[in-house]
Amino acid sequence: MRNLPPLTPKLLVGLTIVGAFVLWGIVGPFVVADPSGIDNIGLSAPSADHLLGTTQTGQDVLAQFAHATRGSLIIGLVVGVLTLLLSAFFGVVGAYVGGWVDEGFSLFSNVMLVIPGLPLVIIISSYVTDKSVWLVAGVLAITSWAGSARVLRGFTLSVRSRDYVLAARVAGERPWRVLLVEILPNLVPLLASQAVFGIIFAILGEAGLSFLGLGATGSFTWGTMLYYAQNSLALMRGAWWWFIPPGLSIALFGAALALINFSIDEIINPRLRDHTRAVTKRWQVTGPSSGTAVEGAAPAEKEATA
Amino acid sequence: MRFVLQKLGFYAVALWAAVTLDFLIPRLMPGNPVDQLVSKLAQKGQVTPETRRAIELLLGADLDQPLWQQYLGFWGQIARGDLGRSVAYFPASVSDMIGQTLPWTLGLIGLSTIISFLLGVGLGTFAGWKRGSWVDNLIPSLTMLQSVPYFWLALILLYVFGLILGVSPLNGGYDPWNTFPGWNWAFIQSVIYYGTLPAITIVVSSVGGWMLGMRNMMVSTLSEDYILTAEAKGIHPRRIMRAYAARNAVLPSVAGFAISLGFVVAGSIVAEVVFSYPGIGNMLLQAVNSNDYALMQGIFLVITLSVLGANLLVDLLYGVIDPRTRARS
Question: Is the C or the N end of chain B the one with fewer CB within 10 Å?
Answer without folding.
Answer: N
